[in-house]
## 1
Amino acid sequence: MPVLTSPDIANKFKERWLAVFPEDQVLDSAPLDDSLTSLHWLQNFSIISTDPERPNAAGPGCPSSLQHHFLRRLGFPRTGTDSPSSPPAGDTAASGMSLHPGSPFTSGSDSQRFPNCAHPTPGYPQIPLQTSPQVEVDYKTNPKVKPPYSYASLICMAMQASKQPKVTLSTIYNWITENFCYYRHAEPSWQNSIRHNLSLNKCFKKVPRQKDEPGKGGFWQIDPQYADMFVNGIFKRRRMSANQYSNSSASQRPNKLVPSYDSIQDTCSFPGVGSKRKHLPSKSNKPVRATESPLLVMEANKMDLLKGDFDLASVFDDVLSGNCSTFEDLDINTALSSLGCEMEVSIHGRQHPAGLGRWCGAGDVMSPSQHISHHQSYGYLDLSAASMECSVSMGELHASQQHPLLRQQQLDQDQPLQGQHHLQHFDEPTSLFPEQSREAVLQPWEEIKEEAQAIPLTLDQGFGLYEGFFTEMPPWE
DNA sequence: GGATGTTTACAAATGG
DNA sequence: CCATTTGTAAACATCC
C-alpha cells in the first residue's frame, strides 16, 4: 500500500480539522520552535499538565503546544488533574508516589529527566472531585477523604512502589500510610482488611521467608498469573460468572496485554477502579470517596469523541474519501504537519517506517467509523504505540521499561506484521511489571535491580484511548 | 505480646 | 433477583 503523503490529503485533513476546531486556526499560523518538531516534549506529557487553563509552567522547553492540543483533541485527559493526590510543593516524602493515577509508583526524578521543564507540581496524584472538577483531592495530605482505591489496588501500588518483587506486609502498610493520609489517621482495622485481602485474593501470593532470613512474616507478591488483572497498579477484576471462573483459570486464560474497550470501561475507571462502589457509603460517618476519576473523565472524553463531540473518525473518513481506500494509507505525519503539528514517530530514535498508524484487523479494511460502528476487533496499533511513545519512551526509557506492547511493537518492526490478527497475538506473558514479565519466564520474581518500571498512566491512557477507541475485544480473549 | 496470617461471617454495592 | 465483588469485623492460630 502506498503511503499517502499527498499534500492534498494533508490539506484536506487540515480543512476538516479546522472545520471542527476553527479556534485552531491560530495554532496553524503560530510560529513553531524546534521543540514542536519532535515529540521530545512528550516525555513530559504524562507529567506536565496539559491543562489548557493552566499556565505553561513547564517552561519553554516544554511545548505549549500543538501536540498537546492535538492529543487533547484526541481525548487525552488533562493530566494535571489526573493524579490522585497533590502533595504541597516541597513535599519530597512521596518519592514512591505516583506521578499518575494508576501508577502511583513511578520512580525517578522527572525533573532530572526533564531538566527543561519546571513542574508546577511534582506530579503527584490528584483526583478531581465529582462536585467540582477543579478541586483536587490530595490524598497524601488529606486525611478526610478515603482514597478511592480498593485494598487490592493499594496493595498492588505498594508492591510496585517498593520496586521489589516481593514485599512484606509492613512495607505495604508503610507505603499506604505514607502516601495516603487517610490511613494514617484511620482506625487500624484497615490493616486487617489488607491482610484479609492478601490472604483471600488469589492475585496475591505469599512467599515464605527463607529460614535464614530474619524478620517477621513472609513476603507477598502479585501472582504473575494474575498480573494482568492490574492495570497501572489498579486492580481490574472483571465480573465473571462462576462458570467463567471455572473455565478460565489463569493458566488457561490467554494473556492479553491490551484491555478491551469494554474492559476499560468496566474496570479501568480509575479511582473507582477496583472499587466498584460508586455511591457513597450509606453510613453517614463514612468518609467521602471521590468517585470521579481521571480515567472516567477520559472515558467521558472518549465517549465524547465517539458521540460526536469530536468525530476524529469522520475527519479521517472525510479526508480519505475518494483519496484512498484504506485508513492505513494515511500518512498522518503529513496530515499533522499540515496543522503545524509534527509527529516524529520513532521508536528509540528510529523513524517509524510506515507513518503513524496502521489498521489491523481480521476483515476487510474499514474506515475508522466503520471500525467503530461495527465493533470489529481492529486495532490502530501504531497510533497506540505512538501515543505511548509520546508519553513514555521518547528516548528515555529502555526497552525493558516499556510496556510489553511497545516491545511487541518493536518486534513487529523487525518482523513485518504477520497476518491480520496482530492484536490478538501477545504470547508474551503479561505482567504488571513489564520487565518482570520477562523475568518471570526465566526466573520468576528474581530480584530486579533495575530502576522500577515507569508506566505513566498516559501509556495506558494511550491504550485506553486508541484501543478503546478502535477496538473491542471480549474480556480475557 | 504484638505482628502476621487465615478463616468466617455479614453487609453493601453492583452487574447480569 | 441473584451472583459477585468489596469492605468490615472478628476469632483464632502461628511466629518472632
Note: The longest helix of chain A spans residues 7-20.
## 2
Amino acid sequence: MNEKQPLTMKDIAAQLGVSVATVSRALKNSPNISKQRRELIQQYAREHDYYPNVIAEQLRHSRQKPSQIIGVILPQIVHYYFASILSGIEEKAKERGYRIMVAQSDEQYEREREICESFMKNKVCGIIVSQAKDTEQYDHFKKLVNNGIPLVFYDRICPALNASRVVVDDYQGTYKAVSYMIETGCKRVAFYGSNMNMEISKNRLNGYKDALYHHGLQPSDELIKQCDNRSDAEKLTPAMLHMKNRPDGFFAINDETAIGIMYTAKRLGFRVPEDVAVCGFTDSERAVSCDPMLTTVKQDGREVGSQATDVLIDTVEGKLPMDRAEKRMVRTRLVVRGTTR
Amino acid sequence: MNEKQPLTMKDIAAQLGVSVATVSRALKNSPNISKQRRELIQQYAREHDYYPNVIAEQLRHSRQKPSQIIGVILPQIVHYYFASILSGIEEKAKERGYRIMVAQSDEQYEREREICESFMKNKVCGIIVSQAKDTEQYDHFKKLVNNGIPLVFYDRICPALNASRVVVDDYQGTYKAVSYMIETGCKRVAFYGSNMNMEISKNRLNGYKDALYHHGLQPSDELIKQCDNRSDAEKLTPAMLHMKNRPDGFFAINDETAIGIMYTAKRLGFRVPEDVAVCGFTDSERAVSCDPMLTTVKQDGREVGSQATDVLIDTVEGKLPMDRAEKRMVRTRLVVRGTTR
DNA sequence: TATCTTAATGCAAACGTTTGCGCGTCATTT
DNA sequence: AAATGACGCGCAAACGTTTGCATTAAGATA
C-alpha cells in the first residue's frame, strides 16, 4: 500500500494512446502539438495530479544546465544573525525558482569538508557559505570551483580565495559607532573582538582604531581584548573596570558580549550609560530585551542573504562570469538606544 | 571553461578499458570482481576525485527506494524556537545520512501549498512541518500522504489529520509553571495566549485552568487574553494592571510577550517579581537578556527536531508503519529565574 | 581430451525525462 | 496532376547509474 507509484508521462501516454514524446511536448506547451491533443493531455495531467519528476529532468539536463538547488552552509543555525541570513537566502531563492539544501558545520573544518562533498554528490548548482572558525585549509573549496560549482561567501569570508562575497561594512559600522561614543563623551573606549585572524574581526578593529585616531585618541593594547561571548565578558570586565584608568565605554563585536558587559557594569554599581557606555553589533532580539536597551550596529542579515543568493544565481545563470569575483557590501546602521549617552 | 564536466563511471571505464558495469560493481565492493581490478578502479576513482551522481542513483532506484532528502517546512526561520528545531532536524538527519531541503511558509497557506508541491516534484522522501497559522485546508497534506510521502508535524500540528507528531507537553509545562506561581504567592494569575484554534494554545490554556482549579481558584474571563507578541502586550497590560482587582501574576505563551509584560509593569512602577510575577514559555536567548531574567518554561527545540526526524526516517525506512500515527511528547522544564518569587 | 564448475566480466534494459530527426498526411502551389 | 511545404506526431538516443542475465575463460574433474 506504500507502493503507490507516482504518475509518469509513460502512464499518461499509455492511457491516452499517444507517445511519451507527445506528452512531454504537450505539457511543455510545445507549438508543434495540435491544440486539441495538447489540451487533452494537460487536462488529464491536471486532473490526475501529475507532477514532473525533477530528478529525471535534472539527469536529462545534467550536461547542459545546472540544477536549481543551492547548497547553504552555516556555522550554526541557532544564532540570530545566521538565521536572518538563511531566511534571506530562502526568500530570494524561492523568488527566483530555486530550492535550498542546508547544513551546519558546527564550526568544524571536518564537517565543512563532508558537507561540501555531499553537496557535490547531490549536484547543487552552487554553494553559499560562511567559513567555520576552525577552517584553515581550502582544498575542499578549491575542488568545488574546479568542478565548476560557484561559491559565494558571506560573513566569514575566505581571504585566501578570490571568491565572490557579500559582507557588511564592518569597518564603517564600527567606525561610526565608536565615533558616536567618543562624540557623546567617552574618553577611553575598549574593544572586545573575536579571533583576530578572522577578516571580520580585523576590519572592525581597524574601524575602531581609525575612529580613535580621527578623534585625537591613541589605541592602547590594554583596552583591546579577545572576548566574544557573555560568560567571557562577565569574567573579563570586572578587571577592566577596576583599572586605575578604567574605560568609560565598551564596543563589543556582538550583542551577546555587549549585554554581558552591561550587566556586569550594573552589578558592580556603575551606571549605564552615564558611567559606562556600551555598544554591540548585530541588532538581534536581545538588543531590545535588555534594560536599558542596547545601542548597537545593525547588520541586516536578510539583505546579506538575499544579495549572496542573487550573486550566486547570477553566476549560475551566466549573468556574472565565473572567473571574476563579485564583492558586495551591505550597509550597516547605528541604532542608538539606552546604553549610550 | 565553465564546461568542465564531472568524472563519470563511463570515463573511468573508458580510461581503464573495462565496462561501466565493472566499474559500478568495483566501486560498490561487489565480491564478483577480481581483487586487482577492484583496487585498480577504486584507486583511480580516489585519485581523480570521482563522486557518484546522486541524481542518477536516485532515478535508478526511484521505483524501489525513496530518496534521502527530507523536506522541512517552517512558518519562519528567524524565531528562536523554530531555529532550534531546524538545528535539531539538521543534526539528526546528517547523523542518519539524510539531507534536508528547507522552506518557510511565512504563515501563509498558499505558500505552504506551493512548498508541498515543489517538495513532491523534488522527490523528497518525507516532510517535517509545522502548520502556518493561516492554514485551514488540508488537501495539500492529504495529497502527500496519498502519494506515499510520510508527514511528521511538530509544534503546530494538524488535528484534522491523523498524522505523526512531536510536540512538547504544553499542558504539563503550563500547569507546572502556573502552579509554581500560585504556590509562591500569586492570587490572581492572568493568561496571555495565541489564537485559540491552535492546539498549542488550547492545551496551554487547559493547563492554566487546571492549575487554578487544583489550587482552589476559579478562572475568570477578564484574566484570559489573546496576546502573543510584545507590542500587543505593551498595549494591553496597562489596562490589566489598573483593574480594581488587578492580576499579580502573568503567564505568557512566549518569552517575547512575557518580556513586554514585565517591562510595562516596571515602567508603571510595579516591582517585579514582588508586585507582579511573570512567566514566559520557550527559554529563548531573550529570557536571559532581560532584567530581571525571565522565569520560563523551557521547550527543547533541538530535541523536538531530533525526534521528529527519527520518526520520519523510521517511517521512510519501514521501521514504523505508514498507517499508524506516531505521537511523541517532549518534556518541558520550568526554569525559575528572577521574574517570579 | 572432453565435460563441468566456477569466477570474472560484459551486455543491455531500466529509471523518467527531453529532443533531433524522420515519416506520413494533408493542403497549397505550379 | 505532380511537386512543395507545413504540420503533427513517433522513434530512439541520451543523461549516469544499477543489475539480471549471458558470455567467456580458466581450472577442476572424469
Note: Chain A has a mean pLDDT of 95.
